[in-house]
Amino acid sequence: MTNKSKTNIENEEEAVTYKNDGNAAFKAENWEEAVKWYSKAISVGEKHKELPVFYKNRAAAYLKLEKYEAALEDCTESLRIAPKDPKALFRRAQAYEALKKFEEAYKDATDLFKEDPTNKSVQPMLQRLHQIVQERVAQNAKTSTKVNQMMELAFDMGNPVDKRRSGANNLLVLAKEEVGADMIFKAGGILKIASVTKIEKDPEIYCNMIRLVGALCEGSVDRTKVVLRELGVPWFLHVLDHKHEERVTTAQYCLQTIINSLSGMENKPESKPKKELCQQNQKEIDTLLTCLVYTITDRTISGSARDAIMELLTRNVHYTALEWAERLVEIRGLQRLLEVCSELEEYKYESAMDITSSSRTIASVCLARIYENMYYDEARKRFGEQIDEYIKDKLLDPDMESKVRVTVAITSLLSGPLDVGNQIIARDGILQMILAMATTDDELQQRVACECIVAAASKKDKAKALCAQGVDILKNLYKCKNDNIRVRALVGLCKLGSYGGQDAAIRPFADGATSKLAEACRRFLIKPGKDRDIRRWAADGLAYLTLDAEVKEKLIEDKAAIHALIDLARSGDQSCLYGVVTTFVNLVNAYEKQEIVPEMIELAKFAKHHIPEEHELDDSDFINKRITILANEGITGALCALAKTESHNSQELIARVLNAVCSLQELRGKVVQDGGVKALLRLALEGTEKGKRHASQALARIGITINPEVAFVGQRSLDVIRPLLNLLAQDCTALENFEALMALTNLAAMNESVRQRIVKEQGMSKVEIYLMEDHLYLTRAAAQCICNLVMSDEVVKMFEKPNDRVKFLALLCEEEDEDTAKASAGALAMLTSVSKICCAKILEVSTWLQVLHTLIANPSPEVQHRGVVVILNMINAGEDIAQKLFETDIMELLSGLSQLPDDTRSKAREIAQQCLTAAERYNIIEKSENAEVPNVFEEAARIEEIEG
Question: Residue 1's pLDDT is what?
Answer without folding.
Answer: 43
